[in-house]
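To: structure subgroup
Subject: Chain for Friday's discussion

All,

I'm putting the inputs and outputs inline so they're searchable in the archive.
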Amino acid sequence: MADAQLTGCGPLTIKYLVFFFNLIFFLSGLILIAVGGVAQGFFHQYMQFFEGQYETPAIGIIILGAIILVVSFFGCCGAKKENVFMLRIFICLMVVILMCEIAAAITVAVLRPDIEKLIKKNMNETMIHYGDPKGLPTLAWDDMQSNHKCCGVGSYMDWETTPYGVNVTGVPDSCCIDEKPGCGHNIFVQIPSDSSSVPTIYSEGCYQALHDAAMSNIGAIAGGIAGLAFFQILGIWMSSCLIKSARERYEIL
């Protein structure tokens, strides 16, 4: 009676739930690698403003995804064979990953103000080096201003005191709504005395645009990790139930 109960649908259901969970976990590892790739592409695109320091978290997400692929292997094999040793390894690795994710979330939350100050500082400093057509500051600023439809750090007036702004008495052409060679020149001469904006160039500063773009990426990453953490906790619980079921079965046999 007891043997039949242990081999009934309860333990069998848990076994296949753990196996199915690990398939989802495997796919989540692939998703994390993809998300890390997107984040890495964003940080790499504007590395001039991050001093190369925040490339590491994106790479870390990719590494975490690869680790999850390995961990899911132990989970799948452990569930399929009902191997207590492999299931225990799986649970230990899951707990470690979960703790790393929590630590990473806390670190990002604590360092966020410092990151924002650093970005703004670097943006102001790189404006000074704008002008060389092949220089990284020039390429980064032109790309950002064109793609995000913005100009300067806080506003287009930030260009007025830069070497480039003094030279052309204006802003880069990438600030223009209708971008063409020389369209940003002599802008500061054309500003009406009763106006703080110019209709031919973008009025929003790029810091806010870059901040919003970064937050949208971080929001997607945070949401993905939160969902993954839920499935991890569920997987740990189901694996523990499967271990208990397997041990009771072996004791009866």
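Points worth raising on Friday:
The longest helix spans residues 206-252.
Confidence is low (pLDDT under 50) at residues 1-9.

D.
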